[in-house]
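Assemble and predict.
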Amino acid sequence: MDADVMDIGRRKVLQAGGGGAVLLLMAAAGLLRPGQAWAEWNKQAFDVKNSLNDAVKALGGSGAPTQSAEIAIKSPDIAENGAVVPFEITSKIPGTRNIALMVEKNPNILAANFEIPQGTDPWINTRIKMGQTSNVFAVVKAADGKFYYASKEVKVTLGGCGG
Amino acid sequence: MADPMKIRAKMEGDKVDVRILMAHEMETGQRKDAQGKVIPAWFIQNVSATCNGKTVLSAEWGPAVAKNPFLAFKFSGAKAGDKIVVTWTDNHGDKRSDEATIA
């Protein structure tokens, strides 16, 4: 009788131990997943503070981007709510491969970087946050690896980064 | 699991007009809660859209993309009835995939 009780106790401990090991494995797997997500995300570029040239460099540019009239930025001139500012970017640069949106005075300049495969229009419509009135850059990477940009000042009456 | 995306894909001449609305907090990591503690960043990092096995758009996002992100783009090489699949991954490793039929 005593031995039986002891035995059940031991089994329970073993089961509990096994469960703990599974939990540990799950935790390890959970910790690994974000690491993999970061691997394909250009942390270096998103960490750049306020420099257009540094951001372009982090995206693979070799020098300062060239200003171009072939890139159009459509957005409100004055955004009442900085938390949601719509932007429509059109590039007429032949072989547009990437379109990036940058907000100079946000905590980090790079907001988004889109990759445009062949067959997709060099046109993007999205909404981003702006902490304050700032220049917004639309940066285009062409097939030859050269970078071009256009800029537009957008006035913000209510910032989208505080709280 | 996050809420489903709203995806609309419609033929416009020979091009497909895609509009996507995602449900995500897109927390910047800049804001503080009532106790003055920083609310950790939580945002979509990678987005990709495929149609007939071909990637038609991919993107890397930072926390500056607005809450409940909206995205529109156009591509050619597909027809009505084809399926478009959109997938996002956030900085917690959470993933969401939704599909829509091109109308």
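Helices of chain A lie at 2-39, 43-47, 52-58.
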